[in-house]
Amino acid sequence: MSNVIVSGSLAYDRIMDYNGLFADHFVPDKIHSISLSFTVDRMSVEFGGTAGNIAYNLALLGEKPAIIATAGTDFGSYKSHLLLSGIDPTTIRIVEGEMTSSAVVLTDKADNQIAAFHPGAGGHAYDTPVETDGRVLAIIAPGCISDMTSLPDYYRRKGLKYLYDPGQQILSLSSENLQDGLTGAHILFASDYEFGLIAQKTGWAEGTILEHVSTIVVTYGAEGSRIVTREGETRVAAAPVKDAIDPTGAGDAYRAGFVKGMLRDLPYTSCAKLGSIVASYAVEAYGTQTHRFTLDDVAARYKSAYGEKVALV
User: Fold this and answer.
1) pTM, two decimal places
2) Domain locations in the chain?
């Protein structure tokens, strides 16, 4: 049985590149009536979503996560990908009559973007009992709002330690929802910008948040991360990246690495370093679930980056 529950989203990311400029096709006095079509030079369909991304990285790290999320009737290719990645998809609920969540992103040569998102099955609550027996940790990542607001109380009642990562759903959650999700969470994960939004929306300063959460982990991209507890804070440098290609999914990879460290009972500073190592692999590949590594690869890169060994098995 898996020892980690990962709730969040599952999505197909349809990425298209246009080798021109959108601006060349806009007529200023017709901006109120736009009808445009672009012939794209590159298109790929990637497997994404917060739950999928975190689970994928955990599987690479030798774990067997259980995904708590919904998908549509077109989930076949994603399901096959999960199976090939060593992830059991049986906990994923298929919503009949709906398509899996899908994002379509068109980017021009100046990195301007036009995007559309269809929530599809991802807008439906999981609405199935979550098996917690034998599980050690749960991660609440951005996904269906209904799940994000119900799971914290469910995990508290079950006595299961959960990590709270509201991410891109912060703006969709009410201040009361955020406060409830934070209350009793073992760790709050957030980027620097997201942490500012959380503080603003809840009205809670960092010290107040620490009255409700055991630990705060704030990420700063290439500047590393910060671990805050009631005893103080620690800064952890980011791991070097060989060639940054695509930052999408780096945050999910970081969380997976951090969780792997927790499962190995490593100090949180080591967990943060491990998170940064896993994130470095993610940004070196196009797409959020296309990078590969072995535990030996991770251990070697960890030693190179931080000058110390890490026990992963």
Assistant:
1) 0.93
2) 4-11+50-100+121-306
